[in-house]
Specification:
It is a single chain. By secondary structure, the protein is α+β, with helices and mostly antiparallel strands. Helix 4 (54-68) runs antiparallel to helix 5 (72-83). Strand 3 (152-156) and strand 4 form a beta hairpin. The longest helix is centred in the N-terminal third of the chain and has 17 residues, at 2-18. A four-stranded mixed β-sheet has the order 2-1-3-4. It folds into two domains: 2-103, Peroxidase, domain 1 (Orthogonal Bundle); 107-177, no CATH class. 20% of the residues are buried. It has helices at 2-18, 23-39, 41-48, 54-68, 72-83, 90-104, 120-134, 165-177, and strands at residues 107-114, 137-144, 152-156, 159-162.
Length: 178
């Protein structure tokens, strides 16, 4: 059902960009609805139940949107998902939407794994280097792996930049054995 998530994510990304919505606020509103669904099995049952009239479902949605201060366009997407019995795909749609918006706005997600905790200046310098290499604005997430021995491994999409001591030792080992 990845195509369902992709279809809705692309369509909503079109809306976000065409009406100049704040992308972070739109995604945040969707995440709040997603969180409410995860917390409340009753809400999930009502929205997924075909026996509950659509008007009642939308009234409940409107009350939640009003209480949470969620944008009208986000409300409309949720209403469409409820009406088309696709609300169970909301989590996947949100993840795909985030990727779609990042791609359209020139952002790249980077996973940086280092052997030790990096300070803020080191993180900013590393993000700057990744931006130069990829030509995109970077949102980096940092993690630790002591097995790297030193250096860092950066993953941007399917591309891996291995600057770790462990990676260099493995390359030397391969060169010697061949």
């Amino acid at each position: 059902m990845a195509s369902v998530a992709n279809t809705y994510a692309r369509a909503f990304a079109d809306v976000v960009l065409s009406v100049h919505l704040d992308a972070n606020r739109a995604v945040g509103g969707l995440r709040r609805i997603e969180g409410l669904l995860a917390e409340s099995s009753d809400l999930r049952r009502v929205w997924e139940n075909p026996a509950v009239p659509a008007e009642q479902k939308r009234k409940l949605l409107d009350a939640i949107v009003h209480r949470e201060g969620i944008e009208h366009h986000v409300r409309n997407l949720i209403a469409v998902l409820i009406d088309h019995r696709r609300i169970q795909f909301l989590g996947r749609i949100v993840e795909q939407l985030k990727k779609e918006l990042d791609a359209r706005m020139g952002f790249a997600e980077a996973q940086v794994t280092s052997a030790r905790e990096l300070g803020d200046p080191e993180k900013r310098a590393l993000e700057s280097q990744i931006e130069k290499v990829t030509g995109k604005k970077v949102r980096a997430q940092f993690g630790l792996d002591a097995a790297l021995l030193g250096g860092a491994v950066v993953r941007v999409g399917s591309t891996i930049y291995d600057g770790s001591v462990k990676g260099q030792l493995e390359k030397i080992k391969e060169a010697i054995s061949s």
